[in-house]
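ugh ok fine here u go
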Amino acid sequence: MVSNETSEEQKKTVLSWGTKILALYLGFVFLILFMVIRCMMQTDVHLVSADYYKDEIAYQSRLDAINATPESALTLSRQDYRLTMHFKNAPFNAIAGEMWLYRPDNAKQDVHIALKVSPEGIQNYSIAALPKGNWHAKINWTQNGKAFFKEQNIDI
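structure:
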């Protein structure tokens, strides 16, 4: 008689395969719903550029500027808390453009710097106020009516 009672107890605690599949399916549904709700509530989305589509349309002109830029046209270096751009091709008074320092992880920390090159072809920029981390520098400039572009990673 004792063995008969234990077998009835075991039958009550064992779930059928249909119940197990239902539990697995419901768990998957709740996981997907949780992820969708969490993604919908996310408000802090960082794109590389707010005008992404406009930038993509103008990308061919950027490719032309990259191809026109010799490797030695611009040297970008960091010493302590100073970022130095050294342009190689004279005349330096004909250089106009900007440098864009951006953080891939936080677009609110991006910095746009207008180029003001010295007569020697050098521009220094203090990076003491910038947070430490990985930065991307994009420098686009025109010189004698010709467009140039250089991109470089910087660790601060």
